[in-house]
Amino acid sequence: MSDPLATVVGMIKTRTLTLAVVALLAATALPATAAPEVPSPQSAVPSDVTVAFAVYDRALGRTTLSHNSHKQIRSASVVKLLIALDYLEARGPDATIPPEDLNRLVPMLRSSDDYAASELWVLNGWEKIVERMAAKLGLEDTAPPVDVGFWGYTALSAADVVKIYRYVLDEAHPKYRAFIMDNLHQATTCATDGFDQSFGLPSAVPGEVAYKQGWSRFGDTPPRPCVEPPHDRTPLPAAKDGPPPRTAPAADVDLTRPAMHTTGTYGPADRKIMAVLTLEPVGTTWDTSAHRLTTVTKAVYLADRVLTQ
Q1: Cβ(130)–Cβ(143) below 8 Å
Q2: What is the pLDDT of residues 1-55, one digit of tens each?
Q3: Where are the residues of the annotated region Disordered (predicted)?
Q4: How far apart are CA 209 and CA 213, in angstroms?
Q5: Which runs of E-coded beta strand occur in the chain?
Q6: Contact 54, 63 (CB under 8 A)
Q7: How confident is the model at residue 69 (pLDDT cuts 50, 70, 90)?
Q8: Whole-prediction pTM value?
Q9: For 84-98, what is each residue's pLDDT tens digit?
Q10: CA distance 212 to 138
């Protein structure tokens, strides 16, 4: 069996990089010592798993690796980036964030607090948040949720996630940039709901990373709680997601299969932006999905490193 990284390198030379990360197709074999071994994407991405990804190099000013990057996938908690950005943009750089809103924004960004996101969603316009941000940032694949009561049903793509980070890092007011990125650089291992959110980027990429994760349809109870989730919260009219819909949504966005996403930045001065979005078969466990997403993220990271080194 040919060496996986040799196959990836061969495909780089034949300009078919994207497919190399998803499946090891035929390619020119190179010596096994050419570079470190890349985990086999074949074992990480079965045919019944949907994966979409994009990597953007800010120093080169271009996307260096992508696959299915414009496929619409429900956002889960990745939409919290837009909720936070919309809040800051609406108030202006000179506004002082009141303590009650800081107590929502900070845990939402660092620990993926769903309750905080629901409060901000309701207070700041529900689906109008997504509409404003999609228009302002030129997000091609982003659309409000088909049921506005569930912000996690927002549709987006890996390419649009990269655009969000590019806007924050290179176009947004420095105060907005600092607020969002400082919090993402301090993302916690444990989410507020007790799930371990260290899958994907923080586990697969060496060095410091800033990250915002997303997951949906894995139940309310983590397999091994990181922290005890709060239980004394008043029910709100909005949430991340709800029961599987009885009818298909108007847009071609899967609302039923478990979703797990990793997004963020790494490298000096947040040079690289990566988004890896996945949809798993119904019934996939948290541990299986987290392991698979981390393996795919590692393969994408190594393939991109070969391309840009």
Answers
A1: yes
A2: 444 334 333 443 334 444 444 443 333 333 444 445 544 444 568 899 999 999 9
A3: 220-267
A4: 12
A5: 50-57, 62-67, 73-74, 155-156, 209-216, 259-266, 272-279
A6: yes
A7: very high
A8: 0.84
A9: 999 999 999 999 999
A10: 20
Q: What's domain 46-308's superfamily in CATH?
A: DD-peptidase/beta-lactamase superfamily (3.40.710.10)
> How is residue 179 annotated by DSSP?
H
C-alpha gyration radius of the chain = 19
Residue 24's pLDDT is 34
Per the CB < 8 A criterion, the answer to whether 19 and 51 are in contact is: no
Q: For the chain, how many residues are written?
A: 309
Token pair for residue 166?
């590019």
231 Cβ neighbours under 8 A, 6+ residues apart: none
> Quick one: what percent of the chain has pLDDT higher than 90?
74
b/e code 12-34 from CB counts within 10 Å (16+ = b): beeeebbebbbebeebeebeeee
Q: What is the DSSP string of 198-238?
A: -SSHHHHS-S-EEEEEEEESS-SS-SS-SSPPP------S-
Alpha helices in 17-98 (DSSP H): 17-22, 41-44, 80-91
Domain assignments of the chain as residue spans, ordered by start: 1-38, 46-308
Cβ(253)–Cβ(153) below 8 Å: yes
Give SS3 for 58.
coil
